[in-house]
Amino acid sequence: MNVLIDKVFVFFRRFKKLIKLIDKKTSVKSVVKSVAGALLLSILIIAIPVLVIINMFIYAKLTFLLSVFLVIIVMGWSFLYYFFYYKLLKNYHEELSEINTKIPQLVESSIVATFFFFIGIIVLATIF
């Protein structure tokens, strides 16, 4: 049990060091541009499936299944957003290309996806 806890602490210590290293090499201007670009790209990619699912709500028997699909798509959106965010950040700062941004990307997107999962569960439980 202690080995697992030690691995978790080492992982989060590594995550913290990578975030500090990334923050040292970035500027506010590049972060704002990366956030705006990542939001735009991820929303454009997610918009088509979401609009198709929303239009399918006319079928009364599929409402619960379609709601679950929407929750899954919103959870997947967080992974897509952070993928584009770190990709754009690497494009703006060439020195970040040698840093492993996979760990911060996965940790941050997992936290956001978990938050969206709980919100989706609460909403689905109150509606159905």
Keywords, separated by commas or semicolons:
4 helices
Concise structural overview:
This protein is mostly helical and 128 residues long. It contains four helices and no strands.
Write the layout of secondary structure elements.
Elements: H1 2-25, H2 28-55, H3 63-92, H4 102-127
What kind of oligomer do you see? single chain
Proportion of strand residues: under 5%
In total, how many domains does the architecture comprise?
A: 1
Largest sheet: none
Q: What pattern of helices and strands is seen along the backbone?
A: HHHH
Shape: flat
What do these coordinates show?
- The protein is mainly alpha-helical and 128 residues long.
- The protein has one domain (2-127).
- It is 84% helix and 0% strand.
- The protein has four helices and no strands.
- It has helices spanning 2-25, 28-55, 63-92, 102-127.
- Helix 2 (28-55) packs antiparallel against helix 3.
- The longest helix has 30 residues, at 63-92.
- The chain is flat, with a radius of gyration of 18 Å.
- The mean pLDDT is 92.
